[in-house]
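note to self: dont lose this again. the chain is below, predicted strucutre after it. 459 aa total, dont forget to put it in the shared folder this time
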Amino acid sequence: MIRIFNHYVSRTGFILLLFEMLILHAAASATVLLWGIAPRNPTNVYLSGLVFALVNVFAMSALGMYQQQLREDLRSMAARIAPAFVLGFLLMAVLAQVLPAARFAGAGGVGFVLGGACVLLTRVLLFTSSQSNILVERLILVGDGALARECLELAASRGGPRRFDVVGCVPMPGEVRCVPAAKVLPPGESLLSLARRHGASELVVSVSERRSGAYPVRELLDCALGGVRVTDAAAFFEREASQIRVDSLQPSYLIYGGGFDQSFFRAFVKRSFDLVASAAICALTLPVMFVAALCIVLEDGGPVIFRQERVGKDGRLFQVLKFRSMGTDAERDGQPRWASAGDPRVTRVGHWLRKLRIDELPQMINVFRGEMSFVGPRPERAYFVEKLGRDIAYYDVRHSIKPGITGLAQVRYQYGASVDDAVRKLQYDLYYVKNNSLFLDLLILIDTVQVVLSGKGAR
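---
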């Protein structure tokens, strides 16, 4: 993994993206030159290829083709590439109306066919090579308790080009064994020699209790000095899952772990991004919002906009604005409750508004008012915040920044409707609060497009 603006990105995925950018640029440039559809000015050719590459990489990203956990065969790869390039073709057609360089790229579809074929060939070669052991990293887990089991499960769930092979777990005195017996390594050998004998490049320290005399501080230091990377379990989860685990989190990790950028420059960049992104979305979706409002009125004649009190930055209350997707008597008993799958309170129009995330669009007004950001933790109701704050450690940390219309938890996890869901989403929120940047905001925005197109997580 490499770290870009505090966010961890797969090294293989990043190289793949850059390589495909070059391939797509070359495909578009060759098309422009061979078909003679533009003046053979080097600037025209370069700009056309650049626009073509950027648009199609965005389309592939929006359809999840750069997700780290992706593992595909030839048929599923082709099934993803085709709609991605169709989306790219449509985006290029829109851009061609305002950007001259977009008019030459693609050559009426030839560039898209050539680019798509090159991308498919590249991915076939990459995924074929990834079936060997070249891109598999070997790990040893120090510990065999509950935390080690979670690390083992995370390592096993990794897909795509970069995968893990957990050699085994080194048992620690005093821990209750929670990993399979077959994964426990026999005692009596130092960690460094164990790593070298098994060809492990990294040790993940997954020991819950580190104050006992049995904790192998000296052996871990020998590993670090001997060229074997030593990683704390909390850092492993942050790096590989974009989560900060709360069940085993030490306060010192948050205090000394870096991040939490609250500088004037970051605030200025984020506010500028909020205003630009919200204005652009409003301009693009204005006809959609008009149709949505009309459909709500025609269905039951009730109010179009739904207002509800939510908790914002530093615990301040504000009125969030949404298109009404439930009946006017959704909480007639006055008892707040989470939405559930197939919730009978949701209207027929509301079902589609929620599925396509159209009900969230009026929150752009909250962004313009400065009550929300475009990207951030989901704002919750005061009733749930009070309850979750009592039950979940570090829950209030998410209120150190403005809540968002979309966010890392919203695009990585399903709709939260329980305390357990809230814990899982908090782990993504803590990661965002700690590592937020313009780069991460842009990645979340692209993932949001994917979520909207796929309709995942709506209730």
